[in-house]
Amino acid sequence: MTALTLSTSGAATLRADALVVGLAKGAKGPVVAPGAEAVDKAFDGKLATVLETLGASGAEGEVTKLPAPSGLKVPVVIAVGLGPVPAKDDAYDAESLRRAAGSAGRALKGSKKAGFALPTESAEDAGAVAEGALLGAYAFTAYQGGENRLAPKGAKAGGNDAKLPLGEVVLLGGKPRDKAFKAAAERAVAVTEEINRARDLVNTPPNDLYPESFAAVASAAGKEHGIKVQVLDEKALVKGGFGGLLGVGQGSTHGPRLVRLSYTHPKAEKTLALVGKGITYDSGGISLKPAGHNETMKCDMSGAAAVFAAVVSASRLGLRVNVTGWLALAENMPSGNATRPGDVLRMYSGKTVEVLNTDAEGRLVLADALTRASEEKPDAIVDVATLTGAMVLALGNRTFGVMANDDAFRTSIHEIAEEVGEASWPMPLPADLRKGMDSPTADIANMGERMGGGLVAGLFLQEFVGEGIAWAHLDIAGPAFHEGAPYGYTPKGGTGSAVRTLVRLAERTAAGDLG
Predict the structure, then answer these.
(1) How close are the terminal C-alpha atoms of the chain, in Å?
(2) Residues that constitute the known binding site for Mn(2+)
(3) Which EC numbers characterise this protein's activity in its record (predicted)?
(4) pTM
(5) Strand order in the sheet with 344-346
(6) Which residue out of 113, 270, 363, 372 is catalytically annotated?
């Protein structure tokens, strides 16, 4: 893990591998951002001019490296783009700082220590820079650097150090003795470590991450962080009548699991239930996915990873709210035992579902978990899932959809997501689409109209939410797994999408801001 230090050291005296400064896009050229005054002085006040000569403009996502002058104790200065200079009296927004710090964190892989001299006028600014740097520094190296059998005897085993994450982030101007700054730093460390753990889970190959092993990870984390963990295996699921989970998982040699994580606070007045889709590998089942659609299906448990990370974060932060996480874990595989199109499953709720497409499996495992979560009468339920390709078609790869049975709750989730820097968009649940899931054989079918498929999936899930409980559904199919080039603090592969939204929701609930 990358370490975080708040430092009162000056930029000119810090000894590190590199120093990060901000560069904004001004009307007449790049402008050095606050926090870099000492660095600019070391360049005789011409840092912006030098950077402009090298092609830098201050645009967001821009990274420019240059050798440091003799007045600094570091060998390299890295300028990161912050975007347009804020209007007079305005500060740089948190997401711009987060992304700039993330770009620097990525650029510093392989380094041991780097100072960040970005604008940190407030504790919120410091928290954003810390979050961005720690998320940007992430690297998944668990399967790299194996011993080379042809290497000379005694040669060092291990991976390429250049791929390892930055060792330490030193936040200059961080005010380590200020309670607000210290709290912001501690929060950033706790949340980003859990986001990065979620990323690790998403990136882990499905031959190593399957329902039983995922449940074991959750159990170990529960012991470490004082979270009660209950794991229902196949026998318990059969006894309980969890037909959705069993139906999806019965085609695999790795049996399904339902994991309940419970964080409680003695003074909590509200309870949140978080439900995550945990398909550790999705082949589509008998309705097999076409070629080219299987390679990234290890990411179909991203919702469960997000829920897991959010519950652990709530515990680490000691939030005054009860948070229960439900991980609906199964592997969707084709075999002689697999559920067939046309089969009817009896769900935990007692409703029967005609399975028209075995690749619409996420809603089946979520339905069982939603019913079970509803039995405990929480104040609100939020489920998170890489549920439909239709949502990606609607909103693209960087934005998740938000549906809910309560307009005010949906608006709150959307606002929270935007506040923490996660792109989202409120989506409707049109009642007329429900008719498309009518079945002549069962109470409901798991498929409806093709157009508006993401909304149809939301309507299906709504059928399994308890009466009178506020519920929201986050379809993170687009942003959960990034296949393109890294940007900002977003890596290639698992992103940890929705964790920050869930944590901020828990914080707001603890503060009584959601009613």
Answers:
(1) 37
(2) 277, 282, 300, 359, 361
(3) 3.4.11.1, 3.4.11.10
(4) 0.96
(5) 344-346, 352-354, 444-445
(6) 363
